[in-house]
User: What shape does this take?
Amino acid sequence: MSLFITDSNNVFGMSVQEAGLYNVKVIKAQVTKTKKRDLPMLTIDVEVIDGKYQGGQIRFQNLVWDDEDQDHLETSVKRFNTLVMAVGVQDGVAIDSLNQIAQGIQNKQLSVDVAWGDPNNKGQVYLEIRGYHPVNPDGSQPNGVKRPNAGQASPVNNQPQISNPFPNHSNDPFASSKGTIDVKDSDLPF
Assistant: This one.
């Protein structure tokens, strides 16, 4: 019996590098709770099924069920209804639990609008799903918007970069007003 069968579609390293509209398949859906308020939450991971980023994953997308008051409840119903309608659930189906949704959307296909989110507490920026739709017959459509600050060093300890409040003065006390310091070898103490 073999250990496994090689498969070029089952390798690490594939990722989605641009925002846009992607046709995806739900590869993971699980119900958990939010950390702060202990609210029920559906976490999903999706995988692009066509185009340039086929096989790339968009992970850890969270949909929170909040029924604290009527406004929050109505927003939660719309949020989850949008998801289930995008995967093809028909009108009139009674949804009893988030577990039912998690089981029902597993391996279903849909399209998602993705955009770059805000930096997390470590300064990292990831794609976030902003909308759910039925599969797009025109295929996935990256929009060319790549990760913000890609290839640039992030600020240390998430401290904002502070510009010089005195633009006509250097922060370097050893710099001359001309921008350079000329030191002759005879001026050095060694």
Summary: The helical segments are 70-86, 98-105. The beta strands are 18-33, 40-48, 57-64, 109-116, 127-133, 141-146.
